[in-house]
Design brief:
single chain, alpha/beta, 2 domains, 11 strands, elongated
Length: 244
């Protein structure tokens, strides 16, 4: 049986759409094959995914499993493919039935007990999902707040593989994450340390302020001792360069 889901892979600071295809067929010996230009961390994830399935109450298919990450020429990095691969294996083995895979993408790293861990680049993936026309995206709870900032996309936060299965199968009635700018400003609108604690460096502080206000990049270059961030940790014979 063939299952197909949608997820995303980071390419720099952007996220690119990836189709996860899982095919399970009878085989003399159980074997799992992952193809699609996946780096070592992604290839090794199959062992983690299988144990997460078993420890969540599902069974690992005792057959020949082929997992394809498309497009094949796009490098696949990080552990955000764990959740869609696990869902694909459950679907291909007839343990999960869902009509939501076309509308809702999924990202997340699995622990051995089936819990979901946060991933990097969740905001970029949410933006890519919206641009792709997806209705929503399923993310780990720890990434819910940063992804919910994307307008026009429903974000559903889950904390385990079992909860994700419940959402896709319709057994769990889940509401999308409600994002509030007021709450963010209240919780994160102030810092214990700010520019008033920095003595001198008025030009550097002014440059940082202008760059932050205009969402511009900032490059600070200087020899050791000139006062740019982190120069104390650099060897005296080397110049330090910091990009923000």
């Amino acid at each position: 049986m063939l299952a197909k889901l949608f997820t995303y892979s980071l390419f720099g600071i952007d996220a690119k759409p990836v189709e996860v295809e899982v095919d399970i067929s009878p085989g003399a010996m159980p074997k799992t094959i992952l193809v699609g230009l996946a780096e070592a961390a992604v290839r090794e994830s199959t062992y983690r995914i299988e144990r997460a399935m078993v420890n969540s109450g599902y069974h690992r298919p005792i057959d020949r499993i082929i997992i394809n990450l498309s497009p094949a020429d796009l490098p696949k990095e990080a552990a955000s493919f764990d959740l869609p691969i696990a869902l694909g294996m459950l679907t291909a083995s007839s343990q999960l039935e869902s009509d939501r895979f076309d509308d809702f993408a999924a990202v997340g790293e699995l622990a051995l007990n089936g819990a979901l861990r946060p991933i990097k680049g969740a905001l970029s993936m949410a933006l890519a999902a919206r641009d792709q026309g997806k209705t929503g995206i399923v993310v780990p709870v720890a990434n819910a707040e940063e992804t919910a900032v994307v307008e026009g996309l429903q974000v559903f936060a889950v904390d385990s593989l079992a909860e994700a299965v419940g959402f896709y199968s319709g057994q769990i009635d889940m509401a999308p994450v409600d994002f509030s700018w007021d709450a963010v400003i209240t919780n994160q609108g102030s810092c214990q340390i700010d520019f008033s604690d920095v003595k001198g460096q008025e030009q550097a502080k002014r440059a940082v302020t202008v760059a932050a206000a205009g969402a511009h990049h900032l490059l600070m270059i200087g020899s050791p001792g000139s006062g740019e961030p982190g120069d104390i940790e650099k060897p005296p014979s080397r110049r330090s360069c910091h990009s923000f």
